[in-house]
Amino acid sequence: MNTSQGPVSFKDVAVDFTQEEWWQLDPDEKITYGDVMLENYSHLVSMGYDITKPNVIIKLEQGEEPWIMEGEFPCQYIPGKYGH
Hints:
Elements lengths: L9 H4 L5 H5 L3 H20 L8 H7 L23
């Protein structure tokens, strides 16, 4: 069954954390998160997707914590879609 709904975007493969959620992660989880987000972005760019570099990627590349402000969800969030 073909359920394709168009090209994949960074929003489709990104996960955002609020500051509170970020602080609940242990150091290894933070490292894994950063590695996966940077790899996902790299794969999209290597496939030819011409996208503006997301803030989370800029923060990760600069060694900053990538959490977002409460109520600010730059990546698509659909209540209930991810079991929340």
